[in-house]
Every structure is written in structure tokens, then in C-alpha cells.
Amino acid sequence: MLLSTRAARCAALMAEPDELYPERILYPRNTRTLPKTPVIGGQPIEEETCMALRTLVFGSCATPPKAEWARTGLTLRPYGQSLAFGLRAPRNTTRGLVTAVQAVMLKHFLFKCDRQEFRTGPETLLKPSYDRQIEVLTSAISEIIWRCAGGFSVSTYPNVVSNIVPEAVVALPQETPYVQHSVQYFQDGLTETLHLFEFNSLENLEIFIKRYLYLFHDEGGPGAVLLLYSAVLSRGLSKARNDLEDPKASILGGCTEEGPISVVIFILTGRASPHLHNGVLHVGDENTYAVPQWGVLMRSEVGFLVHEGDSGVSKQLGSRLKTPSLPIWVTLCLGHHGVLFNTNRELLRNYHAERRFEIQYFTCGGSHATLTVDTRANEASGAPDAAAIETADIAATPLEKLIRSKWQDALIQWNGTPVM
């Protein structure tokens, strides 16, 4: 009975609310409308850049791109209520990117607030006001674009000193298409209308993003693809192509139901690498030259945890993603993206804090659960019995197995019923 209850909870948590309650009543949302300032200025996108950008992101500029990317915004939930810290997103190939943005936002909600806000407690921080929501969404978008431009590190590569000033690029649409429909280029109504804006300081970038935040935020708008385009252009088309390590590859190539891992890594680290390991691995054998595979080059503030059954993906995960500097992780559990987080900044810095703690799980579909993780079981009994571990692992839900990929053999308890 216990196993079936836990399994049911996990299955419900992974399911979308619409799948659980197809006849649910929709009530008016507690939201406010952002001012819609017309886009003025910028440099119209050149034909060569337009075609290269579409090809790098979607794999081709001669065929229509995935339509959901132009219809998914970074949409906030009702302010001042439960889950007000969260973004809302449909289950499609944009989910990985939106979830990574959600993780960056949680960092700002919980750990980038002033002392007075912090004293109110994590429960209040996770029920932000409208103004706080807008502030955090603006900061998260700006931070992601600035990181992709190399703005938070002296150099993209360790031990290399660079005096290059970061140049962030923001791509916003207007009405005039600058590339005509042809055999070589299929108009999508967005990419060919872009104006590009360049920034050399994070402060100016944030001011600009806040002015045009509605283009990123509006539900049904192109916010997801505008952020991805801006990130790629800020990284630089040639650098982003090199990150993929395959001249024929695209950022959304081989896209799974909720998007590829490389998009999540791109948002979290500023590099569109398909690899999860630390540093550089040289892969080859006696018959071929060793080819470098560039993974995660420095410890990330926000981490990444993976459980994909027996696929072996989680075995590639390096400590720089597994143990970030803040207790926030984007998760990929059997193809579904979510966020695990703890409200205690010291969780990963203090051994005693990791002995027993609560951790929250959230998906942009609106599911939310709180679990207690207890790592003390092996301290009293010594080395755990192998048979007992195997039995517990078989009984564990996928989410519990994902959590144990970080805290091995921990006892995990579900606190109440998951919110849908």
C-alpha cells in the first residue's frame, strides 16, 4: 500500500494538471498587464545573420521552425499566492529552457534579496508581490543573456586572461521582414523581422529588458525563442557552433518532448555544450586521434540532476553540476523537466545541514511537492546492507531515484499530497 501511494504521488506529480482534471474550471487570474512600449531603434538583422541564426537553432532555414517556440512566453503565475514564484509553460520542446529560467529566478527570489526581505522567511519570499516578480524576471533574463556574452567570467576558458569587453545582444521583433520568402529561406514571421540591440554593461541591459519585458513575458508570445536567439547572438554564432562540436548539429537538433539537455546547459553556463562532465575529456583510441569534448568549465550556481532510467546519462554528470554553489537544481526525470530547491543557502556548505532537510520540487506545469531527505541512516548502522539498498531502490519512485543520485541511500519521505 505504501509503495502504491508513493508511486501514485510521483505519477501525479509528473502528469500535467490538464491531464488530471480535463473538466476543471478556469478562474480569473490575479495578474496585471505590462506596458507595451513600441520597439524603437536597433540594427535590422542582416540576411546572412538571419539565415545562420535559424539554421543554428532549428537545423534549417528552408523549412518552418517548431511553431511552439513562437507561441511560448516566460509567463508569471498570479502574484502574492501559492506558487507565485513559478513560471507557467505548456509541455513542449520549450519546457527545458523555461525550467532553466525558473531555476535562475528561484536563485533571485531566495538568495538575491535584501536583508529585510530575507528576514520575512522563505514562505514569504516564495509568494512575491507583482513588483518583485517583474524585478526577478527582468534580472533572470538579463543575467542569462549577459552570461552568454561572457559577462560573468574573465574568460570562457580557465587560466586564460582576456580583456575583451562583453557584448550582449538582444533580439526583438518589429513588423518589417528583412529577408524575403524563397527556396533558401522559409519566412516564420519572426526571425526575419528582428532588430538587434547591443549592450556593454549589465545595468543598461537590465533597463532595456524591463522596458520591453512584455515581449518575453506575454502568454502566447515569442518570449522563449527571443531569449534563445538573444543568448545565441550574445554567445556569438561561431562560438555557439563550436560548443556543439559538430558543424552539422543544431541547438534544437534531436529535440526530445521537453527540449534537449544542451539548451538547459546553455542557459545555466553560457555555453551550448551537449556534455555534462567536468572540464575537458579527450576521447579516442589507438586508431584515432583523441578529440577534446568540452564539458562544464566551472562550478555552476544552479545545478542539474538527471535520472533517465538505465540510459546511463546520469553517469556522465560532473560534480560542477551535481554540487552547485546554491541548493537549486534543474532536473530531468524520465523525460520531464522540473526544479529541486532548498531555501537554506548553507545546505551545500555545511555537512550538518545535509543530514536531514526538506527539499521542494516544482514543474512549470504547476505541480509542487515537498519531500524530507534523511542521510543519517548509514551513520548509526555503518555500511548499509546491499540487499536492503537494492530492495529500497526497486521500491523508489523515479523522483526519489533522482534525489538519490545526489544523496546516495538517503531515506526520502513525502510530506503531504503534491499540489497540482
From TrEMBL:
<dbReference type="GO" id="GO:0071108">
    <property type="term" value="P:protein K48-linked deubiquitination"/>
</dbReference>
<dbReference type="GO" id="GO:0004843">
    <property type="term" value="F:cysteine-type deubiquitinase activity"/>
</dbReference>
<dbReference type="InterPro" id="IPR025257">
    <property type="entry name" value="MINDY-3/4_CD"/>
</dbReference>
<keyword id="KW-0378">Hydrolase</keyword>
<comment type="function">
    <text>Hydrolase that can remove 'Lys-48'-linked conjugated ubiquitin from proteins.</text>
</comment>
<protein>
    <recommendedName>
        <fullName>Ubiquitin carboxyl-terminal hydrolase MINDY</fullName>
        <ecNumber>3.4.19.12</ecNumber>
    </recommendedName>
</protein>
<comment type="similarity">
    <text>Belongs to the MINDY deubiquitinase family. FAM188 subfamily.</text>
</comment>
<feature type="domain" description="Deubiquitinating enzyme MINDY-3/4 conserved">
    <location>
        <begin position="54"/>
        <end position="416"/>
    </location>
</feature>
<dbReference type="InterPro" id="IPR039785">
    <property type="entry name" value="MINY3/4"/>
</dbReference>
<dbReference type="GO" id="GO:0006508">
    <property type="term" value="P:proteolysis"/>
</dbReference>
<dbReference type="Pfam" id="PF13898">
    <property type="entry name" value="MINDY-3_4_CD"/>
</dbReference>
<keyword id="KW-0645">Protease</keyword>
<dbReference type="GO" id="GO:1990380">
    <property type="term" value="F:K48-linked deubiquitinase activity"/>
</dbReference>
<keyword id="KW-0788">Thiol protease</keyword>
<keyword id="KW-0833">Ubl conjugation pathway</keyword>
